[in-house]
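Self-study notes.
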Amino acid sequence: MGKWYCSVCNVYHYDDEVGDPKMGIKAGTMPDDFPSDWKCPVCGATKNKLKPLVETEAETTNSTSQREHKIKIIIEKGADNPLLKPELAQDYGKPLGLAGIGSGISYLNNFKALEKVKLRTRLICDHQKPVMEKDFFGIRLSLPLFASPTGGLSYFENIEEEDFMTSVLTGCKAAGTVGFTGDTAKDFQVHPGITAIKSVGGHGVNIFKPRSQDTLIELIQESERSKAIAVGVDIDGAGSVNFTLAGKPVVRKNIDDLKELKRSTSLPFMVKGIMCESDALVALETGADIIGISNHGGRVLDSTPGVADVLPNIVKAIRDTKKGKKVVITADGGVRTGFDVVKMLALGADHVLTGRPIVREAVPHGAEGVRSLIDYMRSDIEKAMIMTSCNTLEDINSDILYDI
C-alpha cells in the first residue's frame, strides 16, 4: 500500500488506501490494476507514468534527534512540468536539451497562452460522428496533428538519432499522420533524417537548421530524392547552442536566401519559426508553401509570448494577402492534449504540431509509443469536437472560443 504521483504532470497524486472515487477507482486498487484505458485526469498520461512516492527518513533540527518521515518525489529525466523551475532553467554554455532557455519564460508562456483559450460548450444540435481527416499535399491524414521536428536526442538520451527519428516517423505513419524530422549537429555520412525518411518510403517531412546555403540545398535535394512529402528550414534554429558548440554555424536567412532554397526543390517548402506578422509576410514573398508559427518550444529566445497569443494576428496578416489564401499554416508550442490541438485550430492553424510528448514516448517506447500517444490525442480531439458541435474540421473556428 502506498502513494503515487504522475511523473508527467507531477500534479496528480493517488493514494491506494483511499482510491479515486471520481475516477471510479476503488480503495485498495494498485495502479497496475487500473483499467487499460485509464488516463491521468490532469495531463492525460497513461497509468504506467504513475510512480511511487518514496518515503525517506531525515534528522530533524531539534536536540532530541527525533527522526521524521518526508515524502520525496523523484522527478524523472524528461518529466514535463512547466511549473517546476529546475525543468525550465538553462545552464548557460551547455546544450539546451528539452528545457526552456534562460528563465524558461518563453516555454512557460506557451502553456499560459493556451490556458487562456477557453472552449465554448455547444450541444443542442443533430449528432454526427466528427470527421477529422484532412489532406496534406496529396496525403490523406486521419487527423490534423503532426510530430514536431526534433533532433539532438543523442546528446542526453541513450538513443541514436536515426533510431529516434525512424520511431517518430513510423509511429506517425501507423497513426495515419505525418512526422517531421529535426536536425543534428553531430557528424554523419547520411543525415539521420534522410535515413528515417527512406525507412518509411518518404512518409515524412525533413526540417533542417539554417546552415550554409550549399549545405541546405544538398540536404533539401537529398530529401527530394528520398521522396519526402515536404522539406523546410527552421529559421529560429539560428540560435542553436548545439550547432554553435559543434563548430557548425547556423545563421539568419534573408529573403533571397529563402527564395534560393525554395527554387532548389519541387517539394512543398516550409519556413518554420515565425513569431510576428512582418516575418510571416516576408515568408510569403519567398514562395513558401507552409508557414510554421513557432517559438522553438521556448528553447532559443527568452521572454517571448506564447504561440497561441500571437497566432490569430499572424494568421490574419497572412490570409489578408492574395498569396496567403492557400498557404498552409502550422502552429506548435505547449501542445499536450487533443484539446490543445482544437484550440490552435480554432485560432487559425491548419495543422498542429506537438514535440515533447512525442519525445517522451519515442525514446522509451519507440514507434508504438508514438502511435499510442497520437491515438489518445485523437480521442481528445473527437471529444472536443463533440462538445463544441463541430462535425468537421471546417467547423472549428473562433466561434467555439470565449472572448479573452
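Second protein, same conventions, sequence then structure:
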Amino acid sequence: MNDTKEIKMMTPFTMVLLLAMALGFVVAIYRLVNGLGAATNLNDDFPWGLWIGFDLLGGVAMAAGGFIIAGTVYLLNWKKYKPIVRPAVLTAFLGYLMAVISLFFDLGQPHRIWHPAFMWQYHSVMWIVAMHVMFYTTTLAVEFSPMVFERLKMHGLLKFINGIMMGVVLFGVMLSVLHQSSLGALYLIVAEKLSPLWYNSLIPYFFLVSAVAMGLNMVSLESIISSKAFKHKPHMDILQGLARGSIITLGLYLIMKVIYLLQGPGFAAIFNGSMEANLYLLEVGGGVVVPLVLLLGTNVKQGVNGLLTVNILVVAGVLLNRMNIAVFGLYGYGKSMGGSYFPSVMEFLLTLAIVALGIFLFKVAAKYLALFPEAEMQT
C-alpha cells in the first residue's frame, strides 16, 4: 500500500460527501424541530419506512461481516483473514452507527432513546433489539479502539485491550447472532399484515442467514473498493475464501426460500404479476440465484471484477429483502386500510447523508489510522 500521506482528503468526491452531509444536517435539524410528520411521509398505516428498512435493518445486516471475520481470526485462529479484520470491524462499526442515527431520527421522541437502558421490559422483542444495539455498538467500539490507541501512542490501554480482545470478540459474536435474528423476530407480530412471500415463523433464521451472506460480501466489496481507492493489492486468496463462504451461505438461504415456498404460498404466488411477486423475484433472482450461478463459474472467483459484481448483487439483494419486509411486503395491507407511503425528499436526503458519513469516516480512518497494516507491510 502507498503511504497514507498519499491519500488526499479534499478531493471532488470528498466535497460531494461533505455536501450530502451538510444537506442531511439541515434535514436533521428540521425533523427535530418540526417532528416526523413534517419531515417524512410516514403515517399510521406505514409507521416504518426508508429509515428503518434501509438504514437500520440494512445497516445492521451490513455489519454482520464484523463478527464473522473477528470470530474467524480471534476465535478460530484463521490467520489467513487477519489482513481484513480491521476494515471488517470498522465497516461493522459504521453500519451500526448508521443504524443508531436512523433509529434516533425515526423515534417519535428521540430524546428518550436512552429509556430502554433503564426501563427494562423483559418480554419485549423491541427492548431486546434496543439492548443488543447498545451492547454490540459498544463492543465494536472496543474492537476498533486498538487503532486509535496506536495512533495516540497509549500503549498501556492498547496492551489492556489486546489482552481482553478474545473475550470481547466472543461476546460480540454471541450478541450479533442474537441481534440479527431478533430483528427478524420483530416481524412475527405482523402475521396478518406482511405478505406471505416473506412472513413465516422462521423469519429470525432467514434474517440471520441472509445477514451472514451480506456480511461476507460486504467485507469482500469493501476490500476490493479500498484496494482500488488506496492503491494496494487485493488479497485474492482471502477474496476467494469469502466467495466460498458465500456459496455455502447463499446455497443454504436459497434452499430455505424454496422449502418455505413449497410449504407456504407456493411457486404460483411469485409469478402472479403483483408488485410483491415481482419484487420477490428481483430479490431472490438477482440477489441469490444469479450470484450463485456466477460464483459456481470458475472464472468469476479468479477475477476481482467478477467478485465485485457478485458482491454488489448480494448486498443489493439483502437490502431489497429488508425493504420488502419493512415496507413493500406490508404495502398491500396498508393500501387496503386506505394508506399509502413513498419516502419524502427529506427521508432520502437524510439516508444519503448517513451513507456519506460512513464513507467519509472510513476514508478518515484509512488516512490517519493503521487500517491496513498487513497491506502496508507487503509493499
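Instructor comment on the second fold: Confidence is low (pLDDT under 50) at residues 375-379.
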